[in-house]
Design a protein that fits this description.
The protein is α+β, with helices and mostly antiparallel strands. Helix 4 packs across helix 10, helix 5 packs across helix 7 and helix 5 crosses helix 9.
Amino acid sequence: MASQESLVFTVARRSTELITPEKPTPYEYKLLSDIDDQEGFRFQIPNIQFYRKRDNFADVQNLDPVKVIREALSKTLVFYYPLAGRVREGAGRKLSVECTGEGVLFVEADADVTLEQFGDTIQPPFPCFKELLFDVPGSTGILDCPLLHIQVTRLKCGGFILASRINHTLCDAAGLVQFMTALSEIARGASAPSVSPLWQRELLSARDPPRITCTHHEYDDVAEINMPLDDMAHRSFFFGPTEIHTLRQLVPPRLRKSSSFELLTACLWLCRTRSLQLDPEEEVRIHCVVNARTKFVPPILPLGYYGNAFVYPAALTTAGKLCESPLGYALQLVKQTKEVVTEEYMRSVADLMVLKGRPHYTVARTYIVSDLSHAGFKEVDFGWGKPVYGGPDGGLPVASFYVPYKNKKGENGTVIAVMLPAYAMKKFVVELENMLKNNNSLVSHNALQHIRSAI
């Protein structure tokens, strides 16, 4: 059976369509919030979901996932009509959505491949992603372009793949899942989403007057060092109960109640920094994406809010200090970073955007991690059951996403895609193996088997 890396197949696509709302929708301008409206969000979020064939159809008209999803999309856009509009830029680089009803991109496709041919382990990265989401010319911009792009690809086995991209300034992962859940509910016959979408972006707009009240190292202006992108390696690693137990034994007793996310982040940051072989005096940082929806007391973001509602505070240290210290040092920094996020921190970020020209987050010697374990991508059911895999198509040179995953042994855990220069990836694997060897032999053996099987 071919692996995803060696799998070759052909995709036949129909002409690109613009899917518009089924009914007339309001024409208006809607301002994005000052959390939405930052340079670091001016890109498109890719996502991919794999579905098996559905048996026992009661209605033969519903056999075609393309037809079901296309029709559901038109109906869903009545409720999420801003997504059928276009982003415009105004004074001070302020973004808004012109609700024109022009529609979203939709591509119908067929592939001469079965789901089984993707192998026993369907996980990122997906080298075939460009085949499964055709790069429609002129579709990748942020301004004056369609805000959502979907391709539904039928497979020979009766299953299908839904790949998508959405303008990040409109929503975060939670917002995207809210939309996809609404789409799936309507595909299954609902007349309206179970959660009504709410715009209300003014809730996360800057104060008047704006004032920066917190320290925001995630937006430090530092000299950039370009990571060579011409020879990159992209691999996934599975971490289950065995690996988490192993890591937990490597930190002081006072830190052993840390969350799995905190342990994994400390581990990956340390191994990644060691693998890049930086100058010991160089400053390195970790950005932990923190969902701020629960940080407001009392809560101010209503159920149904689908805008960006997260921040990514940074922890700083030097490469030398991080690499020479035990895992507990990195773990303590990660924990402290997460703890700084409060309502005031969120307000301060929105104000910083206005006062400092909507800057990009710091990229140089930075690693960004985002936990999607509870985002809900794996719960999106269009009537074919839950996806075999649902989530990002992989990692980025400076970022990794934590995706819930069940391996072929039936163990629940987390799969994490890492992208590094090829020379660094070899060292990263060695560093990770060495870290897992530092515990009892039985646990280490099992953990190393998982790491090796993932690469």
